[in-house]
Amino acid sequence: MADKIIFTGTTHVKGGPDGYARSTNDVLDLALPQPHPAAENLFAAAWSACFIGALELAAGQRKIALPASPEADTTIELLNRADGFVLRARLDIQVPGIDRDIARELVDTAHKICPYSKAVEGNIDIELNLV
């Protein structure tokens, strides 16, 4: 079976004091005079958005109606370790109005569905919290 492209995002980034990030579809247009913490914030936003979509998909697959939209506070930290620079992530996920055990299952399932989670699994330290 051939891959089916669902979405494509293309962004041009320029470095330096006049740096910026602009997506080709004009959804994103940000001044980026410093690469950090912009990179970490952008990664956190992208991962959070994807994770929420995966959580909603997980709920739909189980025929669970979410009474309110899930939310995520995602922290990406850039660390300098003895072997070089690495990332660490913490996702604090809220699934309001759902039994805590079911919400935990949905978070764990979303982590298995989300392409960002898959991309970094085993590569960075990840903490998934249900708050």
As a whole number of angstroms, the C-alpha radius of gyration is 17 Å
- Unreliable runs: none
Report mean pLDDT, rounded to a whole number.
95
Q: Globular, elongated, flat, extended or rod-shaped: what is the shape?
A: globular
List SSEs in N-to-C order. Answer: EEEHEEHHE
The number of helical segments is 3
Percentage beta strand: 25-35%
Side-by-side strand order of the widest sheet: 1-2-3
Q: What would you call the structural class?
A: alpha+beta
* End-to-end distance: 39 Å
**Biggest sheet descriptor:** 3 strands, antiparallel
Approximate helicity band:
25-40%
Total beta strands: 6
Briefly summarize what is shown.
This protein is α+β, with helices and mostly antiparallel strands and 131 residues long. 34% of the residues lie in helices and 30% in strands. α1 packs across α2 (100-113).
SSE layout:
Elements (H helix, E strand, L loop, with lengths): L10 E4 L5 E4 L5 E3 L6 H24 L9 E11 L2 E11 L5 H14 L1 H6 L4 E6 L1
Parallel strand pairs: 5-6
Antiparallel strand pairs: 1-2, 2-3, 4-5
